[in-house]
Inverse folding.
């Protein structure tokens, strides 16, 4: 595995009861870059993301085969240390699910799991991660309120802060700006661009312009298959496949 | 054709209205008679003193023995059933998530057990007690009632835990929590008001049941003072007082019924309130 590669996926197949959701996926996710997974709805983007931290385990109807190497460890083989492995990956799900506790504890919960218990350190980190997710100014006076009272866009940013707080190496973000207005989206996009210095980011979107703005590396999927993968300039300006060309020109919409 | 449909609708409408009124009338009658007769027999002495002269013939004193006995027994068995039931309900919903068939089989079994009448639990408890040489006692009553309410407790907590979205489970695991942390810190917190409702529901069952305590907890004029002594309960005090040949004692049964009804009423109003709060703080989309 290349030293600049963070995640290497080989021959990944996911089967559901009567359909194959992912078909022979072979891709590599570069380190400290933003990799954007693009593709129309239902093509398997979320499923691919869930494979990467083995949330597919929660769905008995799914059968996963192949290899996913992260730091040279095949996570599909990993047994007991799956919790540690998941902690290395911050997941932002397509819909935000705040933990059933107040805003402060939504961040502190993960911090405590990583072994931080001193009140002062917790306070400091909670503030800094809320700032990182561009949420601090909106919630600083109401940290003891239940997180469920936040708007969906705020919840999405809370989930970003919460995911960053466990100090992951990889961020898996499933349409993280889908509930945000253009201005908040922009600010999240800018955060992602800053974050890539410290994290490897995999971001799912079906907004082509967003992909163009922030991607370093693009993976284009269609009906469970990876059609084309490469640097952003190549995929956008010189796509090799006819399908990619059509999608980029908006022919699918 | 159209006309026939209309008549049909009319008949059903009348039927619905009649049966609704009928049910409400019957309910109102029951509550009225309990209150009417109960309040007549009610006195300060009734709820502050144990009976004097025996529960079967005595006209003096009160039913404090049964009030305290019922509360002790019901609280004891509700707590015990909660401590045993919550881990089971969490186990079904968090640890067995990959075993859907097993889970539905467990649910089916629990529903079957739920349907067993309480007298069977009473008889079972009694058999075990005879086998072990144990007398009727508060402890035997608590254990029997715990077994009786356990399926109710587990299934009602299970039903509320089922509503936890899988996305929340994914979020919890993504942060690195293991299964127990997900169960005890995330799932319980998400469903806290539902769990309280399950507790109150089970408590209501426990305090209102006569058959399961008849052979196991026994009856006494004394206030509850030891786990190893028999204990009085409100449903049985109603039963004994009503079957007394003395009319004055029979009247006292309605006072017991009134107290029991009020306790259950307070508990259900309370659980309604908790349920409503729960819906208010749910995720707002
Ligand atoms: N647990 C499952 N069981 C059966 N089929 C599933 C399961 N999860 C996903 N699928 C199917 O797999 C396909 C891909 O789903 P997925 O959620 O990965 O799509 P997506 O690319 O994320 O779409 P979107 O952009 O709408 O979020 C869909 O057809 C979906 O119905
Ligand atoms: Mg998706």
């Amino acid at each position: 595995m290349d030293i600049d590669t963070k995640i290497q996926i080989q021959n990944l197949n996911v089967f559901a009861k009567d359909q194959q959701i992912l078909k022979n996926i072979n891709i590599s996710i570069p380190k400290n870059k933003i990799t954007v997974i693009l593709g129309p709805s239902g093509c398997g983007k979320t499923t691919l993301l869930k494979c990467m931290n083995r949330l597919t385990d929660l769905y008995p109807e799914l059968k996963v085969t192949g290899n996913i190497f992260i730091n040279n460890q095949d996570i599909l083989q990993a047994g007991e240390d799956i919790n540690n492995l998941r902690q290395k990956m911050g997941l932002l799900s397509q819909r935000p699910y705040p933990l059933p506790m107040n805003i402060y504890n939504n961040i502190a919960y993960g911090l405590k799991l990583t072994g931080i218990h001193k009140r002062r350190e917790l306070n400091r980190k909670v503030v800094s991660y809320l700032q990182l997710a561009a949420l601090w100014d909106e919630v600083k006076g109401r940290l003891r309120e239940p997180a469920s009272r936040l708007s969906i866009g705020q919840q999405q940013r809370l989930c970003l802060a919460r995911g960053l707080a466990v100090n992951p190496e990889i961020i898996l973000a499933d349409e993280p700006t889908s509930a945000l207005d253009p201005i908040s989206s922009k600010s999240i996009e800018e955060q992602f661009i800053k974050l890539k210095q410290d994290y490897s980011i995999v971001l799912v979107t079906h907004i082509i312009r967003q992909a163009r703005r922030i991607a370093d590396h693009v993976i284009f999927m269609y009906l469970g298959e990876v059609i084309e993968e490469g640097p952003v300039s190549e995929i956008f300006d010189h796509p090799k496949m006819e399908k990619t060309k059509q999608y980029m020109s908006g022919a699918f919409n | 054709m159209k006309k026939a449909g209309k008549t049909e609708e009319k008949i059903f409408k009348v039927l619905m209205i009649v049966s609704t009124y009928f049910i409400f009338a019957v309910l109102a009658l029951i509550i009225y008679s309990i209150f009417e007769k109960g309040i007549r027999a009610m006195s300060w002495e009734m709820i502050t003193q144990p009976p004097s002269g025996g529960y079967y013939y005595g006209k003096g004193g009160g039913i404090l023995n049964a009030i305290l006995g019922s509360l002790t027994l019901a609280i004891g068995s509700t707590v015990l059933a909660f401590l045993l039931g919550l881990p089971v309900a969490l186990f079904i919903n968090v640890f067995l998530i990959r075993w859907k068939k097993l889970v539905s089989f467990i649910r089916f079994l629990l529903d079957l057990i739920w349907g067993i009448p309480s007298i069977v639990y009473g008889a079972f408890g009694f058999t075990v007690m005879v086998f072990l040489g144990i007398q009727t006692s508060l402890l035997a009553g608590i254990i029997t009632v715990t077994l009786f309410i356990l399926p109710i407790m587990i299934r009602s907590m299970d039903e509320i835990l089922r509503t936890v979205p899988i996305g929340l489970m994914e979020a919890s695991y993504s942060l690195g929590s293991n299964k127990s942390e997900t169960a005890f810190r995330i799932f319980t917190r998400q469903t806290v008001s539902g769990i309280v409702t399950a507790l109150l529901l089970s408590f209501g069952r426990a305090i209102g049941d006569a058959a399961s305590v008849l052979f196991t907890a026994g009856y006494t004029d004394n206030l509850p003072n030891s786990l190893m002594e028999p204990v009085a309960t409100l449903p049985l005090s109603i039963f004994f007082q009503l079957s007394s040949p003395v009319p004055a004692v029979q009247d006292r049964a309605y006072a017991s019924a009134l107290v029991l009804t009020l306790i259950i009423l307070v508990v259900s109003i309370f659980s309604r309130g908790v349920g409503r709060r729960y819906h208010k703080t749910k995720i707002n989309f």
Q: What stands out?
A: The interface with chain B takes residues 50, 53, 55, 57-58, 60, 83-84, 86-87, 89-91, 93, 95, 97-101, 109-110, 113-114, 146, 148-149, 152, 159, 162-163, 166 of chain A (CB under 8 Å). The two ends of chain A are 37 Å apart (CA to CA).
